[in-house]
């Protein structure tokens, strides 16, 4: 894949880059390694000041940065502005809370026959971040803010279609005060990742992306014995039960499916509706979806911009056509438009069957699959019936049913009477083929820390009865 900015609203290539050579990549890794030696010795308070400065720059530069993202990957300008603001808030969150998250945690010294025992969180070194284009700033920030606060350095291999946002991020952290090498953008294709991750100076990797990329990185990391965090795809269920507020559920379902032009890992993708309210929900949902305005992502009146790539649009078009050929019913949308740009209309398909691709694959665009179920048990069975387990949404006002969904849905997060989203305060991640490890919160910061056990004795010959040599 070439490294270039191509405007998805027009299909025009605006700027392209030569990939960095192996020698340039090696020099960048060496610099990240040297920068780590200094960064780890700075105080949390100092790093917090730099991250706060990054937040201030993000706020001040919100509109230009948002325009850049919209031009590179097609999200609406309003959504891009909100993404910049969210990134600034995450920087401030980690700047404010890292001291507590990284503080030594005392343990029961008597129980372990020590004078003192505690856990210390320390940075591990340069971490490779392989990131996707769909939230080009936020996906990187939710790795970078906690990683830099912990004292790690970051090497970013961003998606090949968002090079300017990638370069902006390096520049941002540099201007905020982090020394050269603390955060470096590597303009390389995915074929360079194996070599970078195999470098002994690179200590770990985080990937947000597809299952295929996850398998590839996990394979290299396994061979090299390196820690990874993988945030992969999802096909989140959105279950609607008879007690739900249908108007609200249909409204949120529309946003949950079409935000970011339908290209979100945590978008609701499968709408699983109890038969008692199926027709009423389907009618409201399809009407809402059909009413969305598709068009120029810079136009404030636009709800849904183009897909980020022609390949992405062809893929969802093929998934819809496959379902229709096998007997699915289209309630709205379903026709690939002609003309420039990679637009696709909000679409609802129902009468789905397991042999259709849409049943089990992730659909990365504004296309909703609508499933009819006749009981709680069947709703959970369909909801859990994919290889993914990222997020899950359940709509019910029955407190007991809410509790059962929380326990029974096999996903990294469950949102009841709402849509899945991410907050710096809450851990984020998946189970099954949606990946492993967690981002955000204190857990996200500690993924790339050495959780060091410290035991300080009184100098006796042994640790005492009950201790075992390992
Ligand atoms: P993708 O092809 O996997 O690309 C993501 C990143 O991985 C890009 O930087 C890409 O580089 C790189 N990459 C691709 N193949 C690779 C390989 N074999 N080895 C190493 N790196 C590789 O993903 P996408 O299709 O563009 O993005 C959408 C996917 O990301 C969806 O499945 C979505 O659900 C998932 N996603 C997950 C989360 C989450 O938090 N769980 C969030 C957002 C998106 P190039 O661009 O150079 O190919």
Automatic annotation (TrEMBL):
<dbReference type="InterPro" id="IPR016163">
    <property type="entry name" value="Ald_DH_C"/>
</dbReference>
<dbReference type="InterPro" id="IPR016161">
    <property type="entry name" value="Ald_DH/histidinol_DH"/>
</dbReference>
<dbReference type="InterPro" id="IPR044148">
    <property type="entry name" value="ALDH_GabD1-like"/>
</dbReference>
<feature type="domain" description="Aldehyde dehydrogenase">
    <location>
        <begin position="3"/>
        <end position="454"/>
    </location>
</feature>
<dbReference type="GO" id="GO:0004777">
    <property type="term" value="F:succinate-semialdehyde dehydrogenase (NAD+) activity"/>
</dbReference>
<dbReference type="InterPro" id="IPR015590">
    <property type="entry name" value="Aldehyde_DH_dom"/>
</dbReference>
<protein>
    <submittedName>
        <fullName>Succinate-semialdehyde dehydrogenase / glutarate-semialdehyde dehydrogenase</fullName>
    </submittedName>
</protein>
<dbReference type="InterPro" id="IPR016162">
    <property type="entry name" value="Ald_DH_N"/>
</dbReference>
<dbReference type="GO" id="GO:0004030">
    <property type="term" value="F:aldehyde dehydrogenase [NAD(P)+] activity"/>
</dbReference>
<dbReference type="InterPro" id="IPR047110">
    <property type="entry name" value="GABD/Sad-like"/>
</dbReference>
<keyword id="KW-0521">NADP</keyword>
<dbReference type="Pfam" id="PF00171">
    <property type="entry name" value="Aldedh"/>
</dbReference>
<keyword id="KW-0560">Oxidoreductase</keyword>
<comment type="similarity">
    <text>Belongs to the aldehyde dehydrogenase family.</text>
</comment>
